[in-house]
Design brief:
The strands form 4 sheets. The protein has a 5-stranded mixed beta sheet with strand order 4-3-12-13-15, with no helix packed on it. It has a 4-stranded mixed beta sheet with strand order 5-2-1-14, with no helix packed on it. It has a 4-stranded antiparallel beta sheet with strand order 6-7-10-11. The chain is built from 5 helices and 15 strands. It is globular. A hairpin with a 5-residue loop joins β10 (147-150) and β11 (156-157). With 228 residues, the chain is an alpha+beta fold.
Length: 228
Amino acid sequence: MPREGKERKIKIVKDGPYVVSGNVPLEEKIISLEGGNYEYRQGRKYPEAERYTLCRCGRSKTPPCCDGSHVKEGFDGTETASRDSYAERATLQEGPHLSLMDDGRCASARLCFREKGDAWDLTDRSDDPELREEAIKAACDCPAGRLVALDENGRAIEPVFEPSIEILQDPEKGVSGPLYVKGHIPVESADGGTYEVRNRITLCRCGESANKPFCDAAHIRARYRDEE
């Protein structure tokens, strides 16, 4: 738990790193294909700290932490993402016993693909109880929060997460992925505003996203590797 008076928060420094405060756990997860389904496999765990800074420019020699390389490299970290809410951005796909919201913010983690179909196809076939559960898992495992499943009463179905940050690695693509921020941790913009607080988001750490601070899968195009 955060120490008294210290809230969990991620503060974006102008053209600089993410400053994380409030004893937010930090660990690594590896995207892995297991038996026809993509899953998260446990990677390294990092020591607990009340406050730490994470690289946002993709040039640090001490990843995932910032080493000041953004200054030398002249990193432009201008935030370009929409400030509209998820509900305002998302489209709605209605299925027989499940609906699916989709805002298009994709980190290309592929957890929305299941052995029996993808989240969209499974939603269309949600009259089958087994496929409905598969559709829910496909939506809930999306780290970017792009997909949210809704039950028949229109209520969002979300996993329960404790606040944490996971560094995603994608060996199948040969790249290092974004920061997977879980559990409703506020993200404060460099201008002092706060993005909509959500249960699942992915933040860019390769420095190449066109939708900063959020990941747009540019790490794959850039062949980003955070080799320590």
